[in-house]
């Protein structure tokens, strides 16, 4: 929401007309947003690798796995031997506690779809992040200019004051 | 005079900070709700893709319970409606809080100006 706001603001307001305080507020907000994008990207990356791993695991299952022995993890550290009873389908977590039984091909398809979706989101966020970065750079440039201007003005005022006192004495 | 103003200014600053904190909290609630809605949407699209011969399970505690697709879809739809209602409510609170923050900011600015003026007056008197 705030992302939308500042975006609209950028189109309406000429940043050179803002005061230093407003500029630094804007910069702060942009930086916050950039940080948010970074963390989103990171979690998307994690999701992406998880889907890719699942896809790889599915690819290792073939119909002739049926009846073969495997070790089934009961917890992270306890395994019991078992036999593969059904090598034709897997059960997939589709979110909010729902699981769907799918045959291998549609399971692979599901993983592919998820990876494609996550990758697409990552690209979008990257593009948005780049845009925000550009805006932040522009804001910083204007800020720099304003600060220089301010310093110049102060110096001029000081010089004038010094000149005035010199003239008096 | 300046002393009084300073106290008042501090009070208002505290009020403003409290408002901001609350605002941040509501924002994160909104984000969470948005995420939940999105998750339910993906689940719904996935459930729509489920074929007749495929089975749907629901995780209850540590066990998977077989479920009817229709029932699952209904459940997800109901949840989405609820989340949408909540989102609307939170959105309303957010706009409300934004207004409150703006007015508080105005109050602060005015007080600050008054305080600065009072300080200037005090300085010239000395």
TrEMBL record, chain A:
GO biological process assignments: protein folding; RNA polymerase I assembly; RNA polymerase II core complex assembly; RNA polymerase III assembly
Keywords, in A-Z order: Chaperone, Coiled coil
Entry GO MF terms: unfolded protein binding
InterPro entries: PFD_alpha_archaea, Prefoldin, Prefoldin_subunit_alpha
Pfam families: Prefoldin (PF02996)
Cellular component aspect of the GO annotation: cytoplasm; prefoldin complex
Entry coiled-coil feature ranges: 13-47
Domain of life: Eukaryota
CDD domains linked to this entry: Prefoldin_5
PANTHER family: PREFOLDIN SUBUNIT 5 (PTHR12674)
Protein family membership: Belongs to the prefoldin subunit alpha family.
Protein name: Prefoldin subunit 5
Gene source species: Thrips palmi
UniProtKB/TrEMBL annotation, chain B:
Keyword entries, A-Z: Chaperone, Coiled coil
InterPro entries xrefs: PFD_beta-like, Prefoldin
Keyword Disulfide bond: no
CDD domains named among the record's database cross-references: Prefoldin_6 (cd23161)
Domain of life assignment: Eukaryota
GO process terms (BP): chaperone-mediated protein complex assembly; protein folding
Alphabetical list of Pfam families matching this protein: Prefoldin_2
UniProt GO molecular function: protein-folding chaperone binding; unfolded protein binding
One cellular component term from this protein's GO annotations in UniProt: cytoplasm
Signal peptide: none
Membrane-traversing stretches: none
Coiled coil segments of this chain: 66-114
Family classification: Belongs to the prefoldin subunit beta family.
PANTHER family: PREFOLDIN SUBUNIT 6
Subunit organization: Heterohexamer of two PFD-alpha type and four PFD-beta type subunits.
Protein name (database record): Probable prefoldin subunit 6
């Amino acid at each position: 929401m705030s992302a939308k706001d500042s975006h609209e603001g950028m189109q309406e307001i000429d940043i050179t007309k803002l005061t230093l305080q407003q500029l630094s507020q804007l910069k702060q907000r942009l930086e916050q947003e950039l940080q948010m994008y970074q963390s989103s990207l990171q979690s998307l990356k994690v999701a992406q690798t998880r889907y890719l791993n699942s896809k790889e695991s599915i690819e290792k299952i073939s119909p002739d796995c049926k009846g073969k022995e495997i070790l089934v993890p009961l917890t992270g550290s306890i395994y019991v031997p078992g036999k593969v009873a059904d090598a034709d389908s897997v059960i997939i977590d589709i979110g909010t506690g729902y699981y769907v039984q799918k045959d291998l091909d549609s399971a692979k398809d599901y993983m592919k779809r998820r990876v494609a979706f996550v990758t697409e989101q990552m690209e979008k966020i990257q593009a948005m992040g780049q845009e925000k970065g550009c805006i932040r750079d522009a804001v910083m440039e204007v800020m720099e200019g304003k600060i220089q201007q301010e310093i110049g003005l102060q110096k001029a005022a000081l010089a004038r004051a010094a000149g005035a006192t010199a003239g008096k004495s | 005079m300046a002393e009084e103003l300073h106290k008042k200014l501090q009070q208002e600053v505290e009020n403003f900070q409290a408002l901001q904190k609350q605002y941040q909290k509501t924002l994160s609630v909104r984000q969470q709700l948005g995420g939940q809605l999105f998750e339910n949407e993906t689940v719904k699209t996935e459930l729509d893709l489920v074929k007749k011969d495929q089975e749907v399970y629901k995780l209850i505690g540590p066990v998977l319970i077989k479920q009817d697709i229709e029932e699952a879809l209904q459940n997800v739809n109901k949840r989405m409606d609820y989340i949408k209602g909540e989102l609307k409510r939170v959105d309303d609170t957010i706009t409300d809080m934004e207004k409150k923050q703006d007015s508080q900011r105005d109050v602060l600015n005015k007080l600050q100006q008054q305080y600065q003026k009072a300080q200037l007056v005090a300085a010239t008197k000395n």
